[in-house]
């Protein structure tokens, strides 16, 4: 879980079995990196945040715009930048998190395709420069206690929807085994429309990733399976496994 709640949270690291973990002053893991494969995505739920790839032609991914709200260990931004060759924007309120990511998590230096914005996500996404520009929006905003999403109102999700291009998708990390999940699902469905929302089953740790589309798509199963095979072959993400635990939300 990544944090966008405090500009002064303590940032610390731990390592175990070749994996480096980011913490915000607690035992909660805010992100991770395989030291020998720093641009791969290690955590299962973070891999699932890439499910938007199922809905766009693979040959059109490079050059699209990915935005991550809550930098965490930077796994999504690094993967989109290095592996997918996208233009990337990360919004993080705590400058120390950005510094640690660059020093210890192999976050590349900023350039014409990579920008880290130190700002409050709720305010930053209202900036007109971002409206209608984002193809893949990753929302993973938890505080150091991971009690629930920091930003979770209908107004916030409406602002997120306005960021997206016509083909754009938002993926959100939620806790699927807590009372807040149904509330979050209801709010997202109200803003995007229930026919635009897809959901994974919870991971073993309880993380549930929701996907919401700017323009609803309901591809046939065969089309999703074909796309999943391409995703696995090109980017080594477990996309065929996704389809066993990923489905459209019922209207």
From TrEMBL:
Domain PABS: 1-218
Family matches, as SUPFAM superfamilies: S-adenosyl-L-methionine-dependent methyltransferases
GO molecular function: transferase activity
Active site: 140
Organism domain of life: Bacteria
Keyword Transferase among record annotations: yes
GO biological process, one term: polyamine biosynthetic process
Annotated Gene3D superfamilies: Vaccinia Virus protein VP39 (3.40.50.150)
Family: Belongs to the spermidine/spermine synthase family.
Record's protein name: Spermidine synthase
Organism, scientific name: Ottowia oryzae
Organismal lineage: Bacteria, Pseudomonadati, Pseudomonadota, Betaproteobacteria, Burkholderiales
